[in-house]
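Ticket #4471: structure export looks truncated?
Reporter: QA, pipeline team
Priority: medium

Steps to reproduce: submit the single chain below to the structure queue and open the exported record.
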Amino acid sequence: MSQFINHSLLQILHSGNLVITANERQGRFLRREYAKAVTDGIFPHQATLNVTSYNGWLQSVWALFMSMIEDDSQQPSLINSRQSQLVWEFLAGKVNEFDSVVLKTASSALAGQANSLINEWELDSEDARFSQTVDTSLFSEWRKLYLGHVDYNRWIDISSLPDLVRELFHKSIIPAPNEIHFYHFAEFTPQQQSLFDEMSRKGSQLVRVDREPICKTICRTSLKTVEDEIKAAAQWARSVLELDPNAKVGIVAPALEDCADTVVRVFDQVFDPSSVMKPLANMARPYNISLGKALIDQPVICRALDIISMAQGYLTVEEWVLFLHSPFVRGADAEFLNRTVFAQKIRASGFHTITLSEIIEFLSSEEDEEFSCPILIEVLTAFTESRDAVYQDMRPSDWVTRFDSMLESVGWPGNRQLTSTEYQTVEAWKKSLPDFEALGMVKGHVSFLEAVTYINRVARETIFQPQSPDTPVDIMGTLEAEGLSFDYLWLMGMNDTSWPLPSKPNPLIPIVMQREKNIARSSPEREFTFSKLITDSLVNQSLNVVVSYPETDGDVSCRISSLFVEHDHIDSEELTGAIVPFYSESLVGTAHLEVIDDHIAPPVESGVIIEGGVSIIKHQSACPFRAFAEHRLGARPIEPVDDLLSPAERGELLHRVLELFWKQTTSQASMLALSDIQLLKRVDECVVQSLDELDSKRPRLLRGAYRELEKERLTSLCSAWLEADAKRAPFTQVITEKRSTVTIGGMELRVRIDRQDVLEDGSVAITDYKSGDPSVSGWFGDRPDEPQLPLYAAMYKGRTDIGAVLFGGLKSGSVGYKGIVKEAGILNEKSKAFEESRESKHAEQWDQIVPAWSDTVHRLANDYRQGVADVSPKHPVKSCEYCPMASLCRVAENRAA
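Actual output as written to the record:
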C-alpha cells in the first residue's frame, strides 16, 4: 500500500468519484500514488481516475455549457488573464484625464489582479471606501469601463467563471454533481464557498479529504550562507538516495525564484560531478525543479522571433551573426563552416545594420566557392518572397499564418532532430499563439511592428517548463508543495524575513477592506496564519523533515522563522557530514602534475613577411606571450559592433583628413601662404572627403546631426593641429601615412609612418599621431612601452639623419607636439635641444639614441622570431589591464598560485 495516502482515499480514486485538487501538481501526485497501489496489488485492475484541478473542473463545466448552445452567435467567449490584461490596457487610455501616480505606474496586470480579488473575495465594488483615495476611486471608474466593455462584447472574465458556474447550477441548466471530494485546499475563498454552498443546495455531497499526519522526525539546522545551505541540502538528498534509492525526496524553498540558478548549479555538481563537461541543456537530471523559463529565453523560440523580425528588411550585425550560427535554419549543419566564415566577414564590414537584400548580395558575390552558401541564399530568397505583406495591417490571426509562412520558408526549426526540450518548447510556442491572436479582440487590424512587439511579449510572459520523467528529487516552492508528501523533505531558506511571506496588499483596493475580508497578502497577521497552515501541511505530510536557514543572506544576518523555533536544533554535519568540496574544487592541488617549460615556441620561418607590423614589437615588449598569442596563434577577441564610430575609426578619420591636407600642401611655407579663408576651405574639403569615403564603406552610419558633429570635431582638431605646425621651424616635403617594409631582427614587417617631414638642415622629423596622452619616456629602456617611433627611427639608421622624434597629440584640448629634437627651436621658440632636455638622462648625446633604439627593437624582434613567448608582463597590472589574452595565459591563476 502507498505510504502517503490511506486506503479510503485510494478507494475514492478507484471508484471514479470526482476529486478536485487545488492545483495540477496535486493531481499528478494522486495519480502516481494510485498507480503505485495498483502495482502493489491493492486493486485487481487500474481504473480511470476522475481527478482534476479546480480550474480544470470549472473549464470543463463551461465547455459543457457551451456545447448546449446551438447558435454560435449567442455563445459568449471566455477570456483568460492575458486576454483580460489586453482589455485593461486598451481601456487605460480612457482614464487619462484622471491624474494619479499609481494608475500611471500600475500595470494592467495589477488592475486585473485587483478585479480578481474583488470577485474571489466578494468585495462590494460600490463600497463608499473606494472613493476615499484618488487611486482606488480611479480604479473603480476604470473597472466600470472594463465591466461594461466585457459585457458589451459578450466576454466572460476568467475570474468570474465560478459565479457563472454557480448560476448554471442554481438555474439547473447543468445538474450539479452528486459527489465531489476536495483534496488539500488550504482554504476556500468566499467565491468558492458560495459556489459550493449552491451545489449543496442542489443535492451535491461535498467532502473535504484530509490525510492523517505521517511525520516521524523533524529537526532544524543552520548554514553560514545561502549557497552553503543549498549545498548541504543537495548533499543530504544524495546521501538519502544512496541509502534508499526508492525514496521520494523534496527540497522546498519559499524564495526559490531568487536562487534557482544557484540551486541548479549546485545540484548538478553534487549529483553529477561530470556535468561541468556536458551540455547542460540536454542533460538528464536526477531532479526536477518546478520553475520554468520564459519562452523567449529558449534558443529555438528566440531565433524564431529574430527570423520574424527579419521581415522588417534588416537586422543588426549581431542579430545576423546569431541567425548565421543558428542550428534552427535549413542547411545549418551542411554550411556550418561557410556560414561561420561569412559571419566573420560581416562583422568586419563595419556595418551596424545590414538589410536583407544586402546580405543576399554579399552572399551572391562570394568569389571563393569553397566558402559559398548556396542553401542560405535559397533560404533568404524564399524568406524575401514570404514577407510581401509586412506593409499591410492585418488581424492577429492572419499574422499568425504569415509568421508560420516566414518560419517555414527558412526551414525553422531546422533539419536536425530536436531534443526533447526543444520539441516541447516548439509545441508550447504553438499553444501560446491563441494568446497572440487575442490581440484582435481589442485591436482589430494591427501593423507588422505592432504584431512583432506583441508576439515578443507573449513569448516573454509565457513561462514554459519542459516535462521530465519522474525523478527521485523534486525542488519547488512552498505553495506548489502543499498537499504533496515525501519520504524525506528539506525546507530551506526558512529565515524570519522569507517565511512567513511579507504582506503585500493590492494598492488599488482600500487596504481596510482587504483586511476586513482577510484577503491574501493583506496583513502580517493574515500571512502568519496562512503560512502556518502551509507549514503544518508540509511538515505533517512527509515522513522525515529537515528545516534550515542561512545565518547570513548577503550582508544581512538571519534568524530561524518563528514557525520553527520549537523544533530541536542539530548541527548540519550530523545530517550531511562535512560539506564536501565540489568535484571541480577537489581536483585543485591533488593531481601529480608534470611541469613543462613551454615558453619557447617554434621559430618563425625566415623570409616570410609577418603580419602585424609594429604591434608585434609593442606586444613583445609588453608581454612576449601576448605577441605570440595574438600574432602567431591569431587569437583575437570578437570586437562588438557599434552603431557609432569606434575610437579607432575616429582616429583613422583624423589621420585621413591630415593626409589629404598635406598631399595638397606639402610644406609649411605652402600652408602659411594660404589666407585664413583659404586654409579653412581646404580643411573643410578634406574633412568632407574623409567623411564621404567612410560613408561609402559604412552607409547609414554618418547621418544628419551625427555627421555634423563629427565634421565639427574633425575641423576643430585639424585647425588646432595646423596652428601647432605654423609655430614650428620651417619644414618641407611632408609625407603622411608612408607605408614601408622593413627588416628588423631577421623579420620583414610592414609598417606605416603617420608623418615625416624634412627640416632646414636636411634631417628628418618623424611623427606618430596619438589621441591619448603618451609619455616620451615610453621610448626608452629594454622594454619600451611605445616602441613605434624607435622602430621608425631605426629604419633610417645609416641612411638619413634624424632631427626630431615626435608624438603628435590630437586629443581635444591638448593638441600639439611632444618629443625630443636635435636642435633647439625646432618645435617652437621655447623647445630645447636634446642635451638640455630632461630626456638626456637616457643618452649622453643625440647620436647615441638611434643606435640604442635599433639594438632594442632588433633584440625584441629577434626574440619574437626565435619563439620567446613566456608570460612575463612588463607591468603586472598596467600591461594586463586591457590585454584580451588573460583567459589564455592564465596570468591571474599563476599569480594566485
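Status: closed, not a bug. The export was complete when the record was re-opened. Leaving a note from the reviewer for reference: Residues 662 and 733 are 9 Å apart (CA to CA).
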